[in-house]
Design a protein that fits this description.
Elements lengths: L1 H12 L1 H15 L4 E2 L12 E12 L2 E12 L2 E13 L2 E10 L1
Parallel strand pairs: 1-2
Antiparallel strand pairs: 2-3, 3-4, 4-5
Length: 101
C-alpha cells in the first residue's frame, strides 16, 4: 500500500518529466498512430494507442517510469503491454517495450 501512495506522489511531483517521456515513447514506439484520450477516440479510428504512465521510483537522479499501453482497433483491444523508461535529468536514456497477450 505504501508503494502505491509513493508512486502517486512521485507521479505528481515529476509530471513534466512524465509528459516528456510519454512524448518520446509515442515517437519511438508508436510513430504514426493516433493518440487516444477518451474511450470515444478509439471507436472509429483504425488503430489508436492509449498510454497510462506512472513514476515507479526515483534513485540517484534517475526516474523509473512505467507506461501501460493499449492498441485499439475500432474499439477492440488488439494488443496491450508495458513500456519501461529510465529518465535522467529530463532525458530519456532507456526504453523497453514488453507486449502481453
Amino acid at each position: 500500500m505504501l508503494t502505491f501512495f509513493r508512486s502517486m506522489y512521485l507521479t505528481q511531483k515529476y509530471r513534466e518529466e512524465l509528459k516528456g517521456c510519454e512524448e518520446r515513447v509515442l515517437a519511438e514506439c508508436f510513430a504514426g498512430l493516433e493518440r487516444g484520450r477518451s474511450i470515444n477516440d478509439g471507436m472509429t479510428a483504425i488503430l489508436t494507442v492509449f498510454l497510462y504512465g506512472k513514476v515507479v521510483r526515483e534513485e540517484h537522479g534517475r526516474l523509473y517510469i512505467e507506461f501501460c499501453y493499449y492498441l485499439k482497433n475500432k474499439g477492440f483491444v488488439e494488443a496491450r503491454g508495458i513500456v519501461d523508461c529510465v529518465s535522467e535529468n529530463g532525458v530519456v536514456t532507456e526504453i523497453r517495450l514488453e507486449e502481453k497477450s
